[in-house]
Write a structure and sequence with these properties.
This protein is of the alpha+beta class. The chain has helices at about 1-15, 25-30, 35-50, 75-85; strands spanning about 55-60, 65-70, 95-100.
Amino acid sequence: MRHVTALCMFAWLSFGGAGCALFGTEQDEAAKGPEAVIEANVKKALIGAQDVDGAAIGIIVEGGRVTLDGFVANAAERRRAEQLSERVEGVEQVINRIEVRGGD
């Protein structure tokens, strides 16, 4: 923890405070607004799922509407990404533009 604090302090001194954003927290996301919180929570849900390649999926949030895009291996993974996104607090609608590239 000392190393992270020291690194953050160094970044803050070097970049006028901007460097600490590299170590974002939920509070940082909340300060950006509700759309940033929804985006972060959808990304966490997708990255945390073992059956979805969350890193391959882009997320755009406008109000409570979430648009997913990118590429996945099969239709089941595409649908699972949509389901996970629908469960996130604040999401009212999911537009699934993910393309299947692979098996299914």
